[in-house]
Write a structure and sequence with these properties.
Layout (H helix, E strand, L loop, with lengths): L1 E8 L8 E6 L7 E3 L4 E3 L5 E8 L20 E3 L6 E10 L2 E8 L5 E7 L6 E8 L1
Antiparallel strand pairs: 1-10, 2-5, 3-4, 5-8, 6-7, 7-8, 9-10
């Protein structure tokens, strides 16, 4: 089983964001990046789009709205079970979006948890079989 976990810190009222995780056909709906947005190639034979809403990748309450995620935006996995890549996509419609490139269509489940030890922190975990 492969696992991808995203962690979010609320900047608002403490309500956790919702999420949608679903397969997307990159041939019919290409993934876009850049300014202006252009189609990009994402490794993998199957792609899970992870959309977390409401969420943004910047802190709108600080001058110049600095980014809130400072890690790698493209994580390649090489010789891993089913994962080929986890890649950040540009935010869209008040949603943070990531795409998970897989070797083939696989069953998956999604778990969301609120961390009682860290008020306002929520994790979204995708387990891929």
């Amino acid at each position: 089983v492969d696992q991808v976990t995203l962690t979010f810190q609320t900047l608002g009222d403490g309500s956790p964001p919702g999420n949608v995780v679903q397969y997307r056909d990159a041939d019919k709906q290409p993934f876009l990046d850049g300014d202006p947005p252009e189609p990009i190639s994402v490794p993998g034979a199957a792609h899970l789009l992870v959309k977390v809403t409401p969420a943004v990748s910047v802190n709108p309450f600080v001058e110049d709205a600095p980014g809130t995620y400072t890690g790698n935006t493209s994580l390649e996995y090489g010789d891993h079970s089913h994962l080929e890549i986890v890649r950040k996509l540009p935010d869209k419609d008040k949603s943070v979006r990531w795409v998970i490139g897989l070797d083939s269509v696989r069953p998956f489940c999604v778990a969301r948890a609120v961390d009682p030890a860290a008020p306002g922190r929520t994790t979204v975990t995708v387990l891929i079989g």
